[in-house]
Amino acid sequence: MLIRFGVLGPVTAEDADGRPIPLKGPMHRAVLGRLLVARGRVVPVTDLVDDLWVSPPAKAIATVRTFVAALRRAVEPDRPPRAPARLLVSRGSGYALAATPDQVDAWRFEQVVGATATLAALDRALGWWRGPAYADFPDAAWPRAERSRLTELRLRAVELRAETLLDLGRPADAVPDLDEHVTAHPWREPGWRLLALALYRAGRQGDALAVLRRARELLAGQLGVEPGAELRALEIDVLRQEPRLDHLSESVFTHAATAYERLVPSGSRGRLESAVGLLRNLAVTGPDGLEVAREQRAAAVRAAEQLGDPELTARVIGAYDVPAIWTRADDPAQSAEIVAAAERALAVLPAAGHDAARVRLLATIAVESRGTRDPRPGECARRAEAIARDLDDPALLAFALNGTFMQSCHRTGNSAGRDAIGAELVALSARHGLVTAEILGHLIRLQAASATGRFDDGDRHAAAADRLAERHELPLATVFTEWYRALRADLTGAVSDDPYRTAAERLDGAGMPGVRAGLLPLARLGRRLRLGLPVLYEDAWGPYAMWARLVTRPGETVLADVPDPPADLLAEALWCLFARAATLAGDRVAMARARAALAPAAAEWAGAASGLLTVGRVADYLAAM
What is the pLDDT of residue 193? Predict the structure, then answer.
């Protein structure tokens, strides 16, 4: 069992599911905290005695050993009697805590701050703080140096986060936290510099100067020192309005937006098409942009329809060619609305010409009709791809191939077919600079490699997607590569307990409810099934509840009443849950049904075509039947 320890606040321990582990009294927590401060080094029992008591009692050493024994029972509950400890170990005349970096919040925090961290990573890391480090031992000497070091690291993380916001062209977002930061820590000159720069870039030159003068007064009046060279130079640059203080890309965007607002008439068709282009770009910037784009897209389509121009409607619908990797919709009602609008535009589009508009409408129907067994979207995908190939338009073909991919789950075991789509997308996009489509191609190939356990190939595509995402500031791709690495660790035995927890935390704020709903419980169910562990019913199965209930509450559902799973990337996993229930019930009709569905996927890992999870080898479920 993977135990996680917390020291960024009171000392805590919790199990893999996030449940607190009781640590008894403050002396037990003090022993644990002292061992964590040692960072894996042996702490002699005599040092523990000296650190725990000002005046040690007569049997202090025996008492410490009692504390250690109780802690071992708490953090190693599955250890057989008399088996050697693996986590809280005895070495010579002392003890050590053999924790890995990912088990201790402070150690994970160091890794994030020491790396080239993204804004999301810094936000997550700062969220791990629950108070001062080792907060329940404010007067003890043993955590003092470590507490100071971690506090300094946290202050640096706050400043790194502000720098990242400035680099992203979001100075106004950086101001509130920086204001609080310099108020609490007035001697930190980097904080003052960042606050003044953020105010200046937010168009508040007077406030920026006031902040710099307040810093000067505090430093000179209370410490008797002049501000450092960077603060002095910044004050001069602000007074001169030096161009280098402006964030270049933000300045270009602001001026272009102002000019567009002035020159392009309000309510024009050009504005509507430009808005959709902006939404398309916004959708790949991160969770907030994705949610805003999703909200506004349907409104843009309705506005286009009201103008009565089917080709304009086709362009507005098709301009939102955001790559889609997941075969469940985030907002099924909106997807249905978009499909209906595309069908209406397609019906009135002139039969001759307008081929590019036709491709976009057909591809949109294919992409937005996710998980359905209706043959119509598949037909649209094939027509879109055929026309796009004749037109020799790389971007249009990439969009059409995305539709083909989304309609590739009508039978199980089609990972090789999807891999071919991914390979074409990668080659096509690399030749023509279609970055988002190239990332999509690598993610599709990652999924196909996972389905057959080809992790060397999967690693290569995950790394390629990550490089492109980092270079072009497209953070949502890494949600899928992080889940892939959790799946890989699970199948290769690289972790002893729940490998999906950290990936799930990343997905929580990713703005992709169609991916998130029920995914973590399903991943954990698959792991327990593969390891032969008891399976438990949970309340958070989401769209997978019907099939999860078959194995967690056997006998409650009539198998003949269970519909076929949706035609998506998890169809094999859900069919295997159905197959297990049929086998346990001895239901030959249900077994025949499951066998027919799963036979084409006999060589694959069930569910791993998603690149996110698996419930085991399809062949094992077939053999059991």
Answer: 93
Convert the pLDDT of each residue in 182-222 to its tens digit: 999 998 999 999 999 999 998 899 999 999 999 999 888 87
Q: Describe the crossing of helices 394-406 and 435-451 by its angle, rounded to 10 degrees.
A: 30
- Which domain, by its residues, includes 194? 169-245
The string of pLDDT tens digits covering residues 36-77 is: 999 989 999 989 888 888 888 888 888 888 888 888 888 888
The band of 259, judged by pLDDT with boundaries at 50, 70 and 90, is low
Q: For residue range 265-294, what is the model confidence (pLDDT) as tens digits? A: 777 777 888 888 887 887 777 777 778 888
What pLDDT was estimated at residue 367? 95
> In this structure, what token pair is assigned to residue 40?
């894996």
Number of domains in the chain: 3
Q: Would you say residue 10 lies in a domain?
A: yes
Average pLDDT, the chain: 89
Same domain, 66 and 122: yes
- The rounded distance, in Å, linking the Cα atoms of 74 and 22 is 7
Out of 211, 228, 245, pick the residue that ends a domain: 245
Q: Do both 62 and 119 map to the same domain?
A: yes
Q: What is the pLDDT of residues 418-452, one digit of tens each?
A: 999 999 999 999 999 999 999 999 999 999 999 99
Q: CA–CA distance from 570 to each of 221, 350, 374, 544, 608 (Å)?
A: 66, 39, 18, 10, 8
Separation between Cα atoms, residue 461 and residue 481, nearest integer Å:
9
Q: Which amino acid is at 490?
A: D
d(CA 26, CA 12): 11
Structure tokens at 602: 């006999």
Q: Measure the CA–CA gap between 439 and 461, rounded to whole angstroms.
A: 9
Residue 498 lies in a domain: no
CATH number at residue 177: 1.25.40.10
Cα dihedral 552, 557, 558, 560 in deg (nearest 10): -70
**Both 107 and 193 in a single domain?**
no
Domain membership of residue 231 (yes or no) is yes
Helix, coil or strand: residue 151? helix
C-alpha distances out from residue 233 to 183, 212, 222, 238, Å:
22, 11, 22, 9
Q: Is pLDDT above 90 for 10?
A: yes
State how far Cα 245 lies from the chain centre: 33
Task: Give the list of residues 6+ apart from residue 361 with CB closer than 8 angstroms, or none.
Answer: 314, 317, 318, 342, 345, 346, 349
Q: Is residue 28 part of a domain?
A: yes
Pair of tokens at residue 180 = 């609080």
| pLDDT at residue 363 is higher than 80 | yes
Same domain, yes or no, for 102 and 196? no
Answer whether 322's CB lies under 8 Å from 284's CB.
Answer: yes
* Cβ atoms of 118 and 63 closer than 8 Å: no
Give the phi and the psi of residue 5 in degrees, each rounded to 5.
-115, 145
Single-letter residue type at 216: R
Q: Quick one: how far is CA 258 from the chain centroid?
A: 34
pLDDT at 252: 52
